[in-house]
Every structure is written in structure tokens, then in C-alpha cells.
Amino acid sequence: MKKIPVFLMGCGGVGRYLLQHIVSCRSIHSKLGVYLRVIGVCDSKSLLVPMDVLKEELNDEVLSEICIVKSTGSSLSKLGALEKGGYQVFNDSESRKVTEEIAERLGKSTGLAVVDCSATMDTIEVLMKAVDEGCCVVLANKKPLTSTMEHYDKLVLHPRHVRHESTVGAGLPVIASMNRIISSGDPVHKIVGSLSGTLGYVMSELEDGKPLSQVVRAAKTLGYTEPDPRDDLSGMDVARKALILARLLGKRVVMDSIKIESLYPEEMGPGLMSVDDFLNNEIVNLDQNIEDRVKRASSNGCVLRYVCVIEGSSVQVGIREVSKDSPLGRLRGSDNIVEIYSRCYKEQPLVIQGAGAGNDTTAAGVLADILDLQDLFP
Ligand SMILES: NC(=O)C1=CN([C@@H]2O[C@H](COP(=O)(O)OP(=O)(O)OC[C@H]3O[C@@H](n4cnc5c(N)ncnc54)[C@H](OP(=O)(O)O)[C@@H]3O)[C@@H](O)[C@H]2O)C=CC1
Ligand SMILES: N[C@@H](CC=O)C(=O)O
């Protein structure tokens, strides 16, 4: 049986679903001759590892308990399993050093898949170290790939060792499809897409007459939004996805070169008020303006969509009025659509469409990425 040691950073909505999928897929993986050995889980405050990461693992009972404890907002240090012994918990000041030591120990021996299901820039240094040590890296987190070109180049230095399907379109095979097109020498001229599950859901609910404030709160509850929904409403999350696609096409694009349209004003920004304040008190002040825009679009036979267009050296993201009868206009709920135009897909683009957000589908994409690395493990 091939064993893949897995180290998970981030056990929020996506990370917890990933652990559940790992446990529930044991028999499927067994038939494939693969076993995922989870040897570390960390959140923003602590790291949990077995006493000996080379020989031991966090067993399925512990993984299930992690899911329960984290879903109540509690800390990893509150796990009942710790009382029985056999595990170590490190606090956040020790966590990075210990993680790097594990990457060093396992990277060049058993191999290690370092999986980033956090939503922070803070994992970049650990990921860089992991790449240096020969580890594989799997990302749902878009931030490391949308940092500087230097960070990006380093992360993708060994393309076979990196998977990040869930960074664009959640579980949809967008990156895999693009990689196939690119490696066959078919030049991609243009990509047009609706890449935000949250904004797709918001726009189609607004069409049904619901207020923005209500649908954004619902999108958060459904697990579509980023931890701070302003990351979605500002267009930043779409811009990150667009940047990842542009960089995949070999364009040396940086975030500052992308013009991004925000659905809220600067004075409601993260530096000026908390997420709770924004969602409970301020967002309601945006309801009327967006309702008027939706009505104006409707009077033109159109709907609003938050669209991304990548063409030549230009990357644009923002709200557009699109015909109700167009593929973008027909999109409903959290579905994403990506249209890829290339030499082979010239008049009729290659179209990828389906659920573009949600913890379950995103975690499924991450799991498929880990399995896709199996040939690199002894
Ligand atoms: N939800 C979706 O539909 C999709 C999400 N993604 C991406 O998946 C990622 C996770 O999203 P989601 O699960 O919703 O986010 P959550 O906010 O639910 O979870 C984030 C997790 O990361 C942990 N964390 C924060 N800082 C660090 C750190 N420095 N080191 C390790 N862990 C850390 C948090 O810890 P703590 O528990 O202590 O707060 C939390 O467990 C995001 O990057 C998101 O963009 C991608 C595609 C779709
Ligand atoms: N917040 C994102 C989640 C996936 O990347 C979205 O709404 O699309």
C-alpha cells in the first residue's frame, strides 16, 4: 500500500471537510492502493502531531474529534484525545519551527504533502521551506500564489509537486483543463468567467428581489464566502483567481495591475470595522444602491454578473450587465462558469461550469489533488 503523509494547515470549513472526506474514503483509497496518513493538523493557534511523525499518525478517531472540536470554534488543545497521550500540541510561536522540522524530516524520506486550507498569507514561508525540502504542496488558499512573482516562481518551481485545483472554481477541473491545453501547445487567447460562488449567488438572489445584506449573510452561512465576506464583495477574491489563471498562462502579472471594482466603499473596509459590524450594522446601507442597479439592468433585458476577462496582457474584473439569455446571464446560485478560447477552441470556447464554492466541493477538489500526487510517493 502506497502511503502519503499529509500535513494540514487550516481546519476551518474546508479543512474539516477534507479530514471527513479522508476518513470516509478509506475503502475507496484502499482499492486504489493508497493510504493517506495524516501526521499533523494546525490552525491559527496550535499544531497537533503524533509523538513520532515517521511512524505514527493522527488516527481516524482523532481526526473525527478534530472536526467536532473545531466546528464549535474551540482550540485543538481542547481535544479529549490528548488526555490519553501519544500526541503533542504546540502553540503558535512554536508551530512554524516544528512544521519546518517535519518538512525537513519527511520531505526527502517518506515524502510529505503539505496542504494549505487556511486563508492567510502567513503560510508562505512554511510552503517555501516545504518546496525546498522536496515536499509536495496542495493549496486551496489562493494567497500564496497571488503574492509576489518571486513567491509564485518558487512555489511552482517543481510543477509536478504542486496542485492547486481548488484555488479557482473550487472542485471544478479548471486548472487541470488549462494545464492539458497548455501542455498540448494550444495557445489560450482569452478567458472569460464568473469565478465567484459568493458573487454569483448574491447576484442571482438579488434578481429574485432579496436585499444584499440578507443574501451576503446567507452566503456566509452556506460556506461560500471567504472568512471575511468583504474579500468577496471587494472583488479581491475574483482578482486572485484571475491572477492565478493569468500566471498559469505564463503572464508576469501582479495584483496592483488589476483594476478591481468593489461593492462596498473604502470606509467599510476591514481596517475600519470588524466583520460582525459590517454584516450586522453597515451592509444594510448598500442594499438600495445595488437594488437600483439590478432594476436598471433588468429594464435593459440584462442581469448583473461579476465578470473576469483575461486577454493579452490585460486582466479585468468587475460588474457587467450581461444579457439574461447569455451563458453568463443564465448562471444561477453559486455556480461558476469559465470559457476558455484557444486555437482549438476558437469560435466555441471550452466551457467549464458547476458549483464554484462550498466547503464540501472545495475539500473534494483538494482531496483529488492529493491523490493525483500518489506517483511521487514510495
Ligand atoms: N469555501 C469555499 O467555497 C472555498 C474556499 N477556498 C479557500 O479555502 C481556504 C479555506 O477556506 P475556509 O475553510 O472557508 O476558511 P475558514 O476561515 O473556515 O478556515 C481557515 C482556517 O485556517 C486557519 N488558520 C488561520 N491562520 C493560520 C495559520 N497561520 N496557519 C495555519 N492555519 C491557519 C484558521 O484557524 P482558526 O480555526 O484558529 O481560526 C482556520 O482553521 C481559503 O483560502 C479559501 O479561499 C477555495 C475555494 C472555495
Ligand atoms: N469565496 C469564494 C470561495 C471559493 O474560492 C467564492 O465565493 O467563490
Automatic annotation (TrEMBL):
Entry cofactors: a metal cation
GO MF: homoserine dehydrogenase activity
Top-level lineage group: Eukaryota
GO biological process terms held by the UniProt record: methionine biosynthetic process; threonine biosynthetic process
Protein's organism: Arabis alpina
Cited Pfam families: Homoserine_dh (PF00742)
Binding-site list for L-homoserine: 226
Record's protein name: Homoserine dehydrogenase
UniProt catalytic activity: L-homoserine + NADP(+) = L-aspartate 4-semialdehyde + NADPH + H(+)
Record family assignment: Belongs to the homoserine dehydrogenase family.
EC number: 1.1.1.3
Gene3D superfamilies in alphabetical order: Dihydrodipicolinate Reductase, domain 2, NAD(P)-binding Rossmann-like Domain
Amino-acid positions noted as binding NADPH in the UniProt annotation, renumbered to this chain: 142
Domain Homoserine dehydrogenase catalytic: 173-371
Keywords of this entry: Amino-acid biosynthesis, Methionine biosynthesis, NADP, Oxidoreductase, Threonine biosynthesis
Alphabetized PANTHER family for the sequence: HOMOSERINE DEHYDROGENASE, PTHR43070
Signal peptide feature range: none
